[in-house]
Amino acid sequence: LCASCVVSGSSILSDCSWIAAGTLIREGLRIGSQAMVGLGSVVVKDVRKSGLVYGVPARDRGQRGHL
After folding, report:
1. Cα dist. 63→4, 8, 48 in Å?
2. Which of 25, 27, 30, 34 lies deepest, with the highest CB count within 10 Å?
3. C-alpha 51: how far from chain center
4. CA neighbor of 58 nearest in space, from 67, 66, 45
5. What are phi and psi for residue 21, nearest 5 degrees?
């Protein structure tokens, strides 16, 4: 979890997930293990295990490590 992130209540950040600076995560979401959320993203949906998401709103861009 990097600087200036906002994680709303009841959200779950699983093991080894990586949340970049300036990210906003809506209330009640689950970020899967080993997921990666890009810089300044606004997450409005759950992120799957090993998922890669970024943007406003954050969109699924594939799997971490498989670019």
Report:
1. 24, 24, 9
2. 25
3. 8
4. 45
5. -60, 145
Q: Please say whether the beta carbons of 1 and 13 come within 8 A.
A: yes
CB atoms inside a 10 Å sphere around CB 35: 24
Rounded to the nearest 5 percent, the helix, strand and coil shares of the chain are 0, 35, 65
Q: Mean pLDDT per segment of 10 residues, for the chain of length 67 residues?
A: 94 96 98 97 98 98 79
Count of CB atoms within 10 A of residue 18's CB?
15
Structure-block tokens of residue 47: 């992120």
pTM of the model: 0.91
Region at 23 (left for phi over 0; alpha for psi -120 to 50; beta for the rest): beta
